[in-house]
Amino acid sequence: MTQQRLTTVAAEATATNGSRPPRPEGFIDFISEALYWEKYYNFPDIGYEWNNGQLEEIPPADYAKYMMYIWFLDALRGSLCVEPIARIIGLKMGFRMALPTKTTIRRPDLGVVLNSNPIPLGDHDPIYRGIFDICIESLSDGSQTEIDRDAIIKREEYAAAGVQEYYLLDERGIETQFYRLVRRGVYEPLPRVNGIVRSQVLPSFQFRVADLYEKPTRLQMLDDPVYNGFASPFYDAERRRAEQAEARAEQYAALLKAAGLLEEATA
Known about the structure:
Blueprint: H1 3-16, H2 33-40, E1 48-51, E2 54-57, H3 63-82, E3 86-89, E4 94-98, E5 103-106, E6 110-114, E7 127-128, E8 134-138, H4 144-161, E9 165-169, E10 177-183, E11 186-189, E12 192-193, E13 196-198, E14 206-208, H5 211-214, H6 218-222, H7 228-258, H8 262-266
Parallel strand pairs: 4-7, 8-9
Antiparallel strand pairs: 1-2, 1-5, 3-6, 4-5, 6-8, 9-10, 10-11, 12-13, 13-14
């Protein structure tokens, strides 16, 4: 991104806190945080984030973005199946960041909370009360404002809040980047060794950046040294679950047959 564009974005962020252009007539310009939690956090059909008094609509994703997201999520789940040191949450769960210059409520596409995080993620929490250890965003690219929000504004917010790693997935292959926190407020890209990125928050999680676009299958990942450390145990666990479910179904059918109920149920 050019220096001129960075300067323009900085000016826009100062004037609007990184929000969208002015809303249609009749839209309330300022929304209190209390009103956001009460009315807009669970607003039907439309997802909203809250940026220092202004609502920012969460744009919808397309199929290509979704498939990249799913592949990445599957790889991440596989890693945590082998080394369950954290919890993953999607579903646009919000978390609050009280920053030096403003307060925002963001809802990343994926959040990771380490088991060692001082604020655990509860089974039934609708809001995360702490700071995510990793935030993953699938880039919204419908406008330059949306791109800048994910690539610049959220990156700065997450760094200032102390999010340890920030992953930005861009299906177009332009803005894709993976950051680590070197000190509060400062990110630097995670190293890429032969095209492979390894998390410093989740020691067993690594991936080949090119695979975000090629999306190898689980079977292909079994024979890949980048993934077989967690892909094979994850695949084995999935297969065992399927086999156990099939065995339970067969056992239940046998019990019904022994009781003379199976023929009646299928008659």
